[in-house]
Amino acid sequence: MPVDFIGLISTQDASESRPATGPLVDRAYTARIARAHEDAGFDQVLIGYSSAYPDPAHVAAYAAARTERLTYLVAHRPGVVAPTVAARTFATLDRFSGGRVTLNIITGGHDAEQRRDGDYLSKDDRYARSGEYLSILRRAWESDTPFSHSGRFYAFEDFVSQVRPAAGRIPVYFSGSSPAAYATGVRHADVHMFWGEPLAAIAEQIAAVRAAADAAGVPAPRFSVSFRPILGATEELAWRRAHDILARIDTSHTGRFLRNRDRDNPANAGSQRLLAFAADADRHDRALWTATAKASGAAGNSTALVGTPDTVAQALLDYHDLGVTTFLIRGYDPLDDAVDYGRELVPAVRAAVADRDRTAVPA
């Protein structure tokens, strides 16, 4: 099984453990971090979505114009714009970038954040809307003739788009750790994404998604897991750096905000799961560390893999053994960590996977 690596870029140098520097839209930094990921051998970079921050499609267009190979995984919330508009937007972006766009559908797990963009649906209704939305996107990208639609959330007549994705369709990445997420994801997603949990928990989630796919009579998607690797030349140095990052999260404004935002009611099933694992123990399996999730309220992918490049590479391979073929890795020091991952971590995992593929013996 080949392995894909996804990083993350933003328009400002900042993270949970460090204050923001420079303007919110820093063109030089955006170009620099995109090129750093391309030079480091990443396949893609995620551009996240927030009601308060720059539009990810425009960020992708800017960064794609300054790179040659890197693909852009653009986060998008159904319900923000009509699916017919979104179909044309992403097909246009895909054409201008030379087929370097993938789509990360964010159904939304935080009600207050959804309402900032005018979305008042319940969680289960949001998943139902995402399913209808993705069906329309697919048909808009594939249909040569006008079509109409009358559904629970959307209705229109005689729509046809003259702009199509370069490869005919745009791969869809989906996430969620609830039965509603599994049921929607298997019908529409190419890749189902999980946050970094212990190996046994990821195995259980993969089994649940595959069961949902079987029940729906469709092939199971591929799987991705997200981590925040913290590397050091020795185990001792890696853990020293990890505790320094934890201390910075504990005292940072961003860390306090995220920690307190959902103290009594974590926003989504994924956050609830990460906090439960953190309450059980700080360390799991070979290198998984959940203290950073606890410190940041498990807002987003926040669990770390700590150790030397070899230790962390072996930890990623443990997940690959479960059937995970994609890893989203981003650091608490975003630019420097991307460079380090490209120098030591990404090539080690790729080489190990290639070696396994060469020596695999058919049953």
The CATH superfamily is: Luciferase-like domain
Strand order of the largest sheet: 1-4-5-6-9-10-11-15
- Residue share in β-strands: 15-25%
Low-confidence stretches: none
As a percent range, the share of helical residues equals 40-55%
**CA-based gyration radius:** 20 Å
Coarse shape:
globular
Provide the residue-averaged pLDDT: 93
H/E element order: EEEHEHEHEHHEEEHEHEHHHEEHEHEH
What count of helical segments does DSSP give?
13
Number of domains: 1
CATH architecture label name: Alpha-Beta Barrel
- Derived structural class: alpha/beta
Characterize the biggest β-sheet.
8 strands, parallel, barrel
- In total, the number of strands is 15
Provide the CATH topology.
Answer: TIM Barrel
State the name of the first-level CATH class.
Alpha Beta
Distance between the termini: 15 Å
Protein name: Alkanesulfonate monooxygenase
Keywords: Flavoprotein, FMN, Monooxygenase, Oxidoreductase
Pfam families: Bac_luciferase (PF00296)
GO molecular function, one term: oxidoreductase activity, acting on paired donors, with incorporation or reduction of molecular oxygen
